[in-house]
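Page 37, top half.
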Amino acid sequence: MTNVPWFERTHRWGQTNLTEIDPSRYDSRFWREQWRRTEIQGVIINAGGIVAFYPSENPLHYRASHLGGRDLYGDIVRDAREEGLTVIARMDSNRATADFYREHPDWFTRDRNGRPYMAADRYIACVNSEYYDEYLPSIIREVIARSHPDGFADNSWAGLDARRICFCRNCTVRFRDAYGGDLPERVDFDDPTFRVWLRWNESRRTDVWRQNSRVTAKAGGPDCLWVGMIHGPQAALTNRFVNVRDVAHQSKILFVDNQRRSAPDGFLLNAEVGSRLHGVLGWDRLLPESMAMYSAGHGFFRATSMPGAEVWTWAASGFAGGIQPWWHHISAVHEDHRQYATAQPLFQWHRVNENLLLVSAVSEKSP
């Protein structure tokens, strides 16, 4: 055993992003072999939130449709512990089912006409409601009690974006209590009230980060970190009200969702993202980034493999900015098997050269 905490020693990550059908077809042997082939040191495992992959005791916590009596999350945690891997419980938490909405309609976002905001068939929860203050902390504590993960990630923790104003009672009352007035009527950057609303929302997201961090530390110990997840591009961070400076100052590691290049930004964006985020996080801390092994953003989205050269060039740009690799597959079974071979040479190269890739951290500590 090492006394170095997981957030300082885990340099390569893997994630099989589970889908609802996966409890009936997840191949433990295959994925354990893939962990070994790619020489990862940590895994991100879907636990709960929008979909539970374990038998939650909370009746409102929706279980994966093919879960049955299985604890898939717990099974994968057991496998990972046997392989000596760091375990991060992945939450995806800002939406819920119609049954949940009917039980607690006051916990969900609404437009100015009182209609709930939705993502597909799910209702979007309000960050100013008991959903965030009571329900999600209770799920985090339940996951810790069952499996004692090393930490938590959350892909949808920041809630509704800046292009939509929530007019629910929670937001109406809290904004009036804070600023003595009504919510802005529409998205309008020339409106002083709208600009105040933006800062108010940013502050609330930072409070959510702190709140969840306190929950995990109290229930799981000081090294059980809630890390959330942040986007790489600055525009995406702004749209989700994420103040990187504030969250970085209280974080020992940041998880980044910046999976592929876009046509306008190109490969160089990844180096810029790493350099910019390290500028606020510090170069002595790790910055793992989810990287898509599947085709993303065009064509047969998520069903086919990303070309290897595309993944490797994107990753190399990230390495130049101080980013650590994290392979990411959507679902546990794919017809296009080429994506399984993409990470192996890249991750093996990273293992051989990781001391050079992390040299900036050593140099900063040197006199």
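Page 37, bottom half:
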Amino acid sequence: MLNRVRSAIPHLAEATHYAQFLEEADDRIWSFTGLGWFYAGQSLWNEAEVWYESCFKFATEHFGDRHPSTATSLNNLAGLYYSMGQYDRALPLYEGSLEIRQSELGDRHPDTATSLNNLAGLYSSMGQYDRALPLYEGASEICQSELGDRHPDTATSLNNLAYLYSSMGQYDRALPLYEGAVDILEEVLGQEHPNTNAGKRNLQLLKEQMEN
């Protein structure tokens, strides 16, 4: 699989030169995002940063500072810095992405929930649980309201909130959320789906912590 992806890299790089002629916004930035994703997946951070930064520059120049695609490019660059452990560089980008999405897409849009979730994850990794909690709660509420109680993204939001409660030592609050997430994933994705198995592992780890 990796070899097939590698063989596509020169074509993706070439495609960036023609991105401005594509009609759909997602198509225009995909070549940049795909290259960034490829290099980040191999922990080639410098190469990934070049393409994610190029994506942000392209989005800003062609769509403007307030476009959802610009917010997405900010989010992706922030995610790279987060993966690199450069939280101080990720924070203002996640905040900027959230602000654009709230302004341009609205407080109830699923992409806004994604930004809330990502920013919460950063705060959680920084040990700032009090700042992460309302963001995770907000993301979960949006997902349940806008996507429904049985959507995979709703399960993800429950899982994230459960993980935060677990990190805070509030196991009794984490348990029903993990159980709810697993129940959704089993129903929607199936018993053997990787996401379902990951949810089951989280639930099992919590139960082991509660027994010790």
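Margin note: The longest helix spans residues 45-63.
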